[in-house]
Structure formats: C-alpha cells, structure tokens
C-alpha cells in the first residue's frame, strides 16, 4: 500500500507497509508457528485477511496545534505534531468529518491541550463508524468540564453539518499522562449507543467499551467462532472478557445457557441489549472481573470462551481451568505470545485447530483463534 505520510517520513506507525500483503501474512504465520513451537496443532487453518486500506472503523486523534488551526493525529516523542487526517487507513467518510471538526474546534473555543505547558482543554477526538448504516459516535476527551457550556452551545451547528453523528459525548481526563480517557463521561445526545451488526447479530458500541477496529475481519472472526462452537455438543458456555458480547452472542442458541463476564459496565449494557434483541432468554451478562468470577464458581460449563487483553488470561485462571477442566476452551487473542504462554499452563488440553486473522494490516500484530479440547477427545 502506498502512503504519502510514510513516504515523507511523517508517520511510521505502519511498520510493515513496505512488505506485500502476501509477505505480511507469511511472516505472521511464521511468527505464530514459532510461538506455538513444541505444541502439537491438529489443524492449521488458512489465515483470514481483509482490505489493506480504509478498513478502520475508529480514529483516535491527538489534538494539537492552535484553536484556529488544530492538528488531528499523533505527537512524536520530541513533541512535534503530525496531522493524520489523510491517513489511508481511514475511509472518505472519516475525512469528511475531520474537515468539519477542525472549524468546529474554533467555533466551540476548544483550545488544544499543550503537553509541554500543561495548558488547554481538548486532548483527543475519538470517532467511531458503524458499518450498518454509516452512523458515527464522536467523543471529545477534555481536561475538565470548563468548556461544557461552549461545547453544548456549538453542538447544534455540528449536528446540522454532520447528521451522521448519532452519539456525541465528552470524557473528562484530568491527569497529565498519556492516558486516553478518564472515568467521567457526559453524553449530549438522546442516543447513547451506536448500533452495529455482524453476521445478523446486533451489537452496540458505547463510550468506554471496547470494540474491534477492523469490522470486516472481526465479523469473520466471530463467524468462525460460531461455526466451530456449533459443531460441538455445548449446552452451557462462559464468555469471559466478553466485551459487548460478540463471541457469546454469535455462538449462543436458544437451547444454550450463556454467561458473559466483562469488567466494563458499558460493555455489559451493550451485550444485554443485544441478547434481548435476539430473543435469547437464558443469558446472564455481568460486570465483574473475569478471573475473580471464574475462580469462585462450582458449576463448570461445557465451553469457556476467553478473549483477554494483551496480557493474556494469566496463571491463576489457567490453573483454575486446568483443575475444573471444562471440555472445550476457545481462546481468542490479540497477542499470540501471551496466548502461547497461557496454553502451556493448560497441560490437560490439546490444540485442535488455530487460525490467524489479520486484524492489523501493515504491522506485526494479528488476532488468532485457537480451539482447545481436554484430553484426547476429537472434534
């Protein structure tokens, strides 16, 4: 993929951009094979890839420059700013919104935060698009609520210019550190969530809840999990680190009991709403720590789905799963290194199949889905 920002040396985020897509996939598969190394794998499925450009559904833009001429993009280590509104990873729909947001910042008097001086109000703009209908969620990350009156007064103009903005909110992040968002969120619109749909499953994107950034590949990831699970005799499943419920809601049937656990209450609200829309009744989503929930249970399900953050599920949960021994574990990971480490702490399980999903083109990162079964049983 050609990128003028990369060629000019202004942005080097896509570290693998000079490699062909075929070479990228080959190198990622080599990395995965090396990480699993001594672990026998029953089936290596072909890697799944999507588009190489305009695939992102989310932009996380550092706001810098001046209130009259804001820059939306990143800050280099030396403090210099790079505007990334022309980044080819974003669609034209994002660029149209960026073009309106720049004059809006001046209209609302949202002075960009200056890291060196620790002055200003507007730190980040977070923009998310739904592939369902092109609706968008816009979040302003501010240092304080001092500019709320000006922001609210200017919003009618913004919504008139950009009717696709369904959800608009402000997040307060007062700490002078590289932390994306704070705990306080104020929603200015009647809609509090953005509707999405993958494979006929309604999903809801809310502020302060995780959602995959590559919808084309994510929908294939969920569909693959569904196909693998529905080939198994599952009557009760746990979906740990469930987020907005993507895995559990894809895999569940009306005859199955589903328990979904996620630490973020906003994500649980989304998952609960989706389950109601699907007419699933034996579903229990709770905002809890996944490891703490699991290790306190006695009723062990047939299947445990885990989709942890980059740190993996960890020794405590691995030990619990090894002892309680559910028949099947479905592990989705954005960090194959920690996944491989975790699997080695599950000695009673074997890898039935694994598949790489190229969620992050032009980088060395990828998602991987691995099906584990207890003992010598087969699928």
UniProtKB/TrEMBL annotation:
Question: Gene3D superfamilies annotated for this entry?
Answer: 2.40.50.1070, Vaccinia Virus protein VP39
Q: From the Swiss-Prot or TrEMBL record, what is one GO molecular function term?
A: methyltransferase activity
Q: Which residues form the active site?
A: 334
Catalytic function, reaction form: uridine(747) in 23S rRNA + S-adenosyl-L-methionine = 5-methyluridine(747) in 23S rRNA + S-adenosyl-L-homocysteine + H(+)
Taxonomy, superkingdom: Bacteria
Q: Which UniProt keywords apply?
A: 4Fe-4S, Iron, Iron-sulfur, Metal-binding, Methyltransferase, rRNA processing, S-adenosyl-L-methionine, Transferase
Which InterPro entries does this chain map to? 23SrRNA_MeTrfase_RlmC (IPR011825), MeTrfase_TrmA_AS (IPR030390), MeTrfase_TrmA_CS (IPR030391), SAM-dependent_MTases_sf (IPR029063), U5_MeTrfase_fam (IPR010280)
Residue sites binding S-adenosyl-L-methionine per the record = 212, 241, 262, 307
Q: Identify the EC number(s).
A: 2.1.1.189
The UniProt record gives the binding positions of [4Fe-4S] cluster as: 3, 11, 14, 87
Give the UniProt record's GO annotations in the biological process aspect.
Answer: methylation
Q: Which family does it belong to?
A: Belongs to the class I-like SAM-binding methyltransferase superfamily. RNA M5U methyltransferase family. RlmC subfamily.
- Protein function: Catalyzes the formation of 5-methyl-uridine at position 747 (m5U747) in 23S rRNA.
User: Record's PANTHER family?
Assistant: RNA M5U METHYLTRANSFERASE, TRNA (URACIL(54)-C(5))-METHYLTRANSFERASE
**HAMAP family recorded:** 23SrRNA_methyltr_RlmC
Q: What is this protein called?
A: 23S rRNA (uracil(747)-C(5))-methyltransferase RlmC
Task: State the organism of origin.
Answer: Atlantibacter subterraneus
